[in-house]
Predict the 3D structure of the following.
Amino acid sequence: MVKILQVAQLGNEILRYPAQPINNIGDKSVQKLIDDLIATVVATNGVGIAAPQVSQSDRLFIVASRPNLRYPNAPKMEPIAMINPQISSHSEEIVKGWEGCLSVPGIRGLVPRYRVIEVEYTDREGQLEKQKLTDFVARIFQHEYDHLEGLVFLDRVESSKDLITENEYQKQIVNQF
């Protein structure tokens, strides 16, 4: 039975340490964690979630872009579990975009990220996958990858002037569209 997991909040030390590689993808506990992460990201209106955010120090995250209350213009895709992911290459082009985080509630930041990345990861069936990701989905991947490295989006914001509360973001930014 899937379970909605509690999301670790900024200040919880697990968010500041590199996560450990997963060696046995077929293990029932890993497969259950994937199912629980998917249920949690859907229940919390996220577009991605990393295992450290639910207090599991594993190199695993879910990319689950879809329009929702927090990201009304997000592209729709099926949730993908990405195990032991890596960025194999990236574009020179860096773009700033607004990001929020389930572990940093109430705040958004304008974060610089590569516009295009090529990634490798193992899927939940143990198959090595290679993909080229662009724009918003590339941003999600990079945001979640940072969680595996012990970083949060606040570490990437260039200036405190690039921060906004969630309420102001909804009034100023979302209402522009």
Summary: The chain has three helices and eight strands. The first strand starts at residue 48 and ends at 50. The two ends are 39 Å apart (CA to CA).
